[in-house]
Amino acid sequence: MQRSIYRRHRFHPSIIQTAVRLYYRYTLSYRDIEEILAERGIDVSYETIRRWCHKFGPVYARRIQARREQPASKWHIDEVFLKIGGRQFYLWRAVDAEGEVLDVLLQSRRDTAAAVTFLRRAVSRVGDVPSVIVTDRWRPSMMAVRQVLPDVPNDFGKRLNNRAENSHQPTRRRERKQQRFKSPQSAQRFLSIHAGFYNHFNIQRHLLTRKTMKQFRSETLRVWSELAA
Prior knowledge:
Elements: H1 13-25, H2 30-39, H3 46-67, E1 74-84, E2 87-96, E3 101-107, H4 112-126, E4 132-135, H5 139-148, E5 154-156, H6 162-166, H7 169-177, H8 184-201, H9 210-228
Parallel strand pairs: 1-4, 4-5
Antiparallel strand pairs: 1-2, 2-3
Helix pairs in contact: 1-3, 2-3, 3-8, 4-5
């Protein structure tokens, strides 16, 4: 019989699940979530919430990833700089044509070798090869596509890669909320988990009627309950 991942925890699993979901789903701090729970009569410290997020966040993210459908065959790749501890790092991100985050990787370099490393990792994690890759006109990105996937067409041009560039916005919001990430390791851990939650709960409601959006939202929450059980 499989043991529960919540064994030896004083609080009910539903409270843990709610706290972790709030942290990775919305732009909230641990103290914000502590206050939200306190308003509902649940006395838990922000440090406990932090430990829950570190322990259960990766578990939930893996389960979400295992339930995701195969991504669209068109990929967009882009990078954005992050300032961590006074040093400049580069966050590489791959998304599909629907905006689903395929992979994120924080690296200290922004050259062809770094682009190749990221693209190989993305292909390995997705387990499939795209039919086309969209990049900007930055030469190392185009060189990486030629080295790793020489048979895959590489599109580039003005505004063609807006899908990937727009996907950086949630990262920027969290970076401001947290007053910058504290270390490369914590940034990579958070952003990898956040990507899974973003994929699961991002309904793109601006493209749907309210009736359809409510149906999708109900199904998303139902699946979440199963994943977190």
